[in-house]
Amino acid sequence: MIKKSLIFFISLSLLNCGIARQRMEISDYLIYQKGKEIIGNDNLNSFIFENDLKNIPFQQFLSAKFKSNSLQEREIKVTIEGGKYKLLFYDNDEFEKYIGNSNFAIKNQESESNKTGNQSKFIAISVINDKNEDCLSEQSLYQNIVVSYLKKLKDEYLKQ
Fold first, then answer.
1. In 81-118, beta strands by DSSP E
2. H or E element in which residue 124 lies
3. How do strand 83-89 and strand 75-80 relate by DSSP bridges?
4. C-beta of residue 132 within 8 angstroms of C-beta of residue 44
5. Is 22 helix (H, G, I), strand (E, B) or coil?
6. 3-59, pLDDT tens digit by residue?
7. Phi first, then psi: what are they for 48, rounded to 5°?
8. How far apart are CA 97 and CA 25, in angstroms?
């Protein structure tokens, strides 16, 4: 009886240790389907890319680019090709709640001394238009316009 119990616990612990969760590596960017929830929509899609932790914090970059008065701004209104959009940024807690850091593998790890501030490893942005529609949805007519804009914004930030 003791032998059977011991074998059971050893096999159970080996199974728990041996099951590794698949993690995605983001080479450029990724459109993820389970983001923030807003009124009138299910979960929004989000544009995700890996942060360069040697850069200035992303919120500081956004504040300078859009001439915002606050580093805590989580929504910014922009005009892209004549259309009005709202960019919704995820903080660390929201990213973990809706997306989860454990779903992604970090490609460019940095030591603590190379990091600037307390930055998240990934940046996530959702976008809605003035009709409250998810502009990153595959069904959206605005997806190509918005993704092109976000790619340019990402590239501008990472070049700093």
1. 83-89, 104-105
2. strand 122-129
3. antiparallel
4. no
5. coil
6. 777 677 676 665 555 455 555 666 789 898 878 887 766 789 999 998 888 888 888
7. -120, 135
8. 19
Total residue length of the chain: 160
CB 130, CB 142: distance < 8 Å: no
Q: Quick one: which of 89, 41, 39, 38 has its CA closest to 63? A: 89
For 70-91, the pLDDT digits (tens) are: 767 788 999 999 999 999 998 8
Helices (H), 99-142: none
- Give residues with Cβ within 8 angstroms of 1, minimum separation 6: none
Determine the angle formed by the axes of helices 143-158 and 58-65, rounding to 10 degrees: 110
Which one, of 111, 99, 105, lies nearest residue 34 by Cα?
99
